[in-house]
Amino acid sequence: MTDAPRQSSSSSSSFFRRPSFVQPFQALYFLMIQRGNPHPRKKVAVVGSGVAGIGALWALNRSPHDVYIFEAADRLGGHANTVEFTRGKYKTLVDAGFMVMNEATYPNFLNFLRRMKVETAPTEMSFSVSRDQGRFEWASLNRDAFFCQRSNYFSPRMWRLVFDIWRFDKFALDVLRAEKPTEETIGEYLEREGYSTKFKDDYLTPITASLWNTSPEKCALDFPVATLIRFMWNHHFLASTSKNPQWLTLNSGSKSYIDAVMKGFPSNHVRLNSKVISITPERDGRLRLHTLHPTGGKSEVFDHVILATHGDQALSIIRDSATEAEDSILRSFQTSTNEVFLHSDLSLMPERYEAWTSFNYLSRSSPMTGSGHIDQVCLTYNMNILQEIPRAAFGDVLVTLNPLHKPDPKTIQGRYTYRHTIFNKSVLAAQERLPEIQNTRGISYAGAWTRQGTHEDGFSSGLRVAVEHLGANIPFEFEESTLARGGRPRYSLWDYVIRFLIWLVQVLFLAVIDKIAGGLTTTRRRLVSRVGAKGTALNGRVKVHEKDL
User: Fold this and answer.
1) Which residues are in the Amine oxidase domain (predicted)?
2) What is the dihedral of CA 337, 343, 349, 353, to 10 degrees?
């Protein structure tokens, strides 16, 4: 086994320096294209080096503008964070942030990668749920994995879950076909349509929380149902309605596209460890950036600023001079802080090996309420699967977001913190109003938070502001990924046949299944209640548990 391909992590000046013979030709090129250009040469600051900032920088790199990039951290990339994993004499690169993309809904980002000759590799997208240390588990790989708990073949609740998954896959698209857009939340939709608690807790909530990297109570039930369903439809997550697209990873890690963009960019235009704390307007209409860095504070004047930060960070930066519209719009964008560990602790994987997938959702219920209430969740990415890292050489390579417990310290090889936008109804309303403040006062806003939160959304937002606000040109046609499969789904005759059969099952059999499951659950709860009242416990847990049926 040889070392995986590696990119140098050095940020020395030679990494950014343009060859001297290029500069005169570049100056002549900029002079030629500036004639008749409605966007005169400007001094531009890109604040934030995540995917949105890198996208804007790449688009502006071939423009006449004088571009600088500011980053509060000591590295570029934001969530594009490629780190080293070692085991004995072996070393490999692991992505501990952005990991995967697909061919269907990442058109601009993939076009960019092809232009930059950054190589990708196919990967497996699979998902599992594990509750309370394996008391209930399923995985999406195949039928055997879905019923990795053989007792679930005889569980009325499990079969109700299967039925609800099929029903959701076939009927959820009605929301997108409606003549008038709905403002209904997921919770309201599930209640109105009569979906089971098991479907909510063990299927839709885990998927929603995993997609947006946040806790279920912060996003799942308050999230607009139309947005979720469109996202799932675009990404082919409505499994029974379409063929899944090919999912991809980056051969040399996500850092490889950062390196490709920064190759040749002047080092004195890269400001690492420089936190932008505020922006104040000058009398001539320009903007003064105030920064903090290890050696003190500094300020610099720019003609245009692209705030490629999170929305709440953008508001913090402009707060002293923010207009009423800027304040009311940007205050809707809130973020959650998420902790990520690179480790090898298998206690943060499903109990059953058959349930091991690329994305593994684990939850823990309250000891007193049992499976009725989820207290804590985490998501473990199996990098052996996602990046095809061989277990024989490296053992188990895992990345866990917000672990249920801290991994065994002996297995930890990295610890990182990221922020993710909390998506809810107020965020979507604020997104509709963003054009009111875009490119006003010489400030543009970019980031995944301006759309649906994906890496593609972040990259595309950076391209968009560079092109629309500063006249940049990109070498391919910009595509709108949020409507990747069109605006309105269509049903085939076969779809209508299946929908009728599902409706028939719901009318004739569902009430009977629910009655059986409900009766058995009530009996078990009474048993647990009696045992709990007698104080019979072991290590803080009641000996007789209410198991999922």
Assistant:
1) 52-468
2) 150
Summarize the confidence of residues 38-47 as an average pLDDT. Answer: 89
Q: Which long-range contacts (CB under 8 A, 24 or more apart) does 201-206 make?
A: 201/371, 201/374, 202/129, 202/131, 202/136, 202/138, 202/161, 203/129, 203/161, 203/164, 203/165, 204/168, 205/374, 206/127, 206/129, 206/361, 206/363, 206/377
Planar angle of CA 196, 235, 175, nearest 5 degrees: 50
pLDDT in tens, 466-491: 999 999 999 999 998 876 666 678 88
Every domain range in the chain assigned CATH 3.90.660: 126-243+335-421
Q: What is the pLDDT of residues 21-34, one digit of tens each?
A: 444 444 444 444 44
3-state helix, strand, coil in the chain (%, to 5): 40, 20, 40
Which pLDDT score, from 0 to 100, does residue 215 have?
Answer: 57
471: left (phi over 0), alpha (psi -120 to 50) or beta: left
First to last CA, the chain: 46
Chain centroid, CA 307 distance in Å: 20
The architecture (CATH level 2) of 13-120+253-334+422-477 comes to 3-Layer(bba) Sandwich (3.50)
CATH 3.40.50 fits domain 126-243+335-421: no
The residue that leads in pLDDT, 78 or 492, is 78
User: Global pTM?
Assistant: 0.84
The answer to whether 170 touches 206, Cβ cutoff 8 Å, is no
Q: d(Cα 442, Cα 375) in Å, to the nearest integer?
A: 45
CATH 3.50.50.60 residue ranges of the chain are: 13-120+253-334+422-477
